[in-house]
C-alpha cells in the first residue's frame, strides 16, 4: 500500500488483521507523535499497545451477531495527541460480521477506508471452540435488534434489556465512532497462533 499519491488507490483483497486495522488506521494516519509517552498513570484502554488517534474510526455494520454486548459509561481514555476523552466501553462476546462492515478514518489529509462486503469476524470462536472477546472504546449511535418488533438505538436497547444486550438473534444497522478496537482470545494457550480477526476485504487510501 503506497500513501501520498493523489487520488484513490485500492489494495487487493486481503484478510485485515488487528495490527492492520488498529496500528495502521489509528496510528500511521494520526500524524502526531504521542506526547503522553512520559506519563506513568494507568490509562484506559488497558492492554492496547498504542494510544488511539484523536480522529475516531467511523464504523458501520449492516448485519452482525454476538452472544451479548455490555456497556460501561464514563470511561476515560488517553489519545495519541496527549488529550483524554470520557467515552463508553462496549464489550462483545463472539462478535461475527454477517454482512458489510465499513471502517473509515479521515486524518492528516488522508482518508483510509476498510470495506468488508461479506462475512467476517471480530472475535467469534477460536480453533478450540472457545469464545473470544471484543472491546470497543467510543460511541455507538445506533444498533438494532428484533424482539417481535425492530428496536433501534443503544439507549433504547439498554432500557429494554438492562446493561446486558443479547445479540444471539443478530443485530442490524450498527453505526459508531470508535477510537480503539481490541479483540482477544481469553482462553488461548501460550503457543496459540489463532487470529481472532478475519476481515476479508479491501483497503483504500485517498488524498484530496
Strand segment tally = 13
Mean pLDDT: 74
Q: Provide the gyration radius in Å.
A: 17 Å
Total of helices: 2
Structural class, please? mainly beta
Q: Which sequence of SSEs, written as H and E, runs from N to C?
A: EEHEEEEEEEEHEEE
Largest sheet: 13 strands, antiparallel
Helix content: under 10%
Weakly predicted, low-confidence segments? 1-42
Query: Looking at the structure, what is the overall shape?
Result: globular
Q: Beta-strand level of the residues, as a percent range?
A: over 45%
First-to-last CA distance: 17 Å
Could you characterize what this model shows?
By secondary structure, the chain is mainly beta. It has two helices and 13 strands; from the N terminus they run ββαββββββββαβββ. The protein has helices at residues 18-27, 154-161, and strands spanning 7-10, 14-16, 57-65, 68-78, 84-93, 96-107, 110-116, 120-122, 133-147, 149-152, 164-166, 171-184, 197-207. Strands 1, 2, 3, 4, 5, 6, 7, 8, 9, 10, 11, 12 and 13 form a 13-stranded antiparallel sheet that branches.
What's a concise summary of this model?
The chain has 208 residues and is mainly beta.
Secondary-structure blueprint of this entry?
Layout: E1 7-10, E2 14-16, H1 18-27, E3 57-65, E4 68-78, E5 84-93, E6 96-107, E7 110-116, E8 120-122, E9 133-147, E10 149-152, H2 154-161, E11 164-166, E12 171-184, E13 197-207
Antiparallel strand pairs: 1-13, 2-13, 3-6, 3-12, 4-5, 4-11, 5-9, 6-7, 6-8, 7-13, 8-13, 9-10, 9-12
